[in-house]
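Quick question, first post here. What does this chain look like in 3D?
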Amino acid sequence: MRDDDSSSSFDSRGVRIDWDALVSPRTAGRVSKLGTETAFAVSAEATAFAALGHHVYPFHIGDLNFATPPNIVEASLRALKDGKTGYCPNAGIPILKEAVANEVNASRGLDYRAENVAVQPGGKPVIGKFLLTLMNPGDEVLYPNPGFPIYESQIEFHGGVAVPYRFVESATGFEIDLEALERSITPRTRLLILNDLQNPLGAECSPQEFERLSEIVSQHDLWVLSDEAYFDVRYSGTSTSFASIADMARRTVILYTFSKRFAMTGWRLGAALGPRSVIDVIATLNVNDESCTNHFVQYGGVEALTGDQTEPRRIVSVLKERRDAALKILRATPGVRCYEPRGTFYLFPNVTEAMRIKGFEDVDDFRREVLRETGVSVCSRTHFGRPQVDEDQHYVRFAYSGIEVDQIVEGLERFRSYLDLSTAAS
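> Answer (accepted):
Ran it through. Tokens below.
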């Protein structure tokens, strides 16, 4: 073996043997159904554009550019120095499970105990473990589309049938098309995935939507995954958990994550909360998958929930400033229609008219042109699930979690000027 190529070796004559070419694995059939987050391709495009010397305004990134609050970091470091580096209980350390249960009970009006909590290495694992626990191959799962693309990927990878439900744009935002959702239910429908305060739309359910959804869930005997990743990232009003609706806690699993509220996206810390019968299975899946969540990081989670909340509150305040700055310019931009979400860190404007102004029919061609002409990098609707066949409106997603206000203003003014010029030309 030579140092210059770790994937190759050489025979006795010095001829290179390319083992990757000789050994072609026969992957499992399910692999063909495994999706990804195609937004990473947008990031690669933006990186390549920046490498050519262009300035990029990174609205495509759904990550936070805030440091994790120092008290959380210090608590984890103390645990690390105290030797919390080995295996720990597969469902999480008791002090964190209790803290998560207390936090969720206080904020959502529920009555969980520590045994209703299974700590996870992030929020995302809850999706797959919920499906593995409750979905048999061939079962149908209702999921939001547009929505977080891993829902669709995990359903199909684990042998389920992914059935999308849509949103309709109203004067005040986006609403679930409840009539279409109910029409899509069949005797094989088993599960519903609900992401209130939703990525990418920023939408949240009204009390009327929650009430109707609860009726549908009861009538059809469904289980619900309530993805509450953005529950605490809101600027006005009060968040409501679907599990808080009458009789829904007994058939709902909550996806809880530390990533957004505490700027801990890379720490990989989250939890599943729900009925003991389901949580026990998820804890057993922990044993099979990763044994346990990182030990010392869990002590950081305890501090996040029980310690000083000054910095998490400041993060939300700054995010609101960013939302307001972006929204003001987008609403003044020709061909763009954008409503004001009360939470998350996403704007999902309708750019159908803007595309017409510029002569585009394909939304991804449009966003690439916007990048080339303005440096503004965004994701499109196509990065959040396969578009449904009768969609005739076009949207892009602006994430403002990783970009400062001055860059938001500068980038979006360039975007507005780009469209203003074409308006004048037409």
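The radius of gyration is 23 Å.
DSSP finds 14 helices and 16 strands in the chain.
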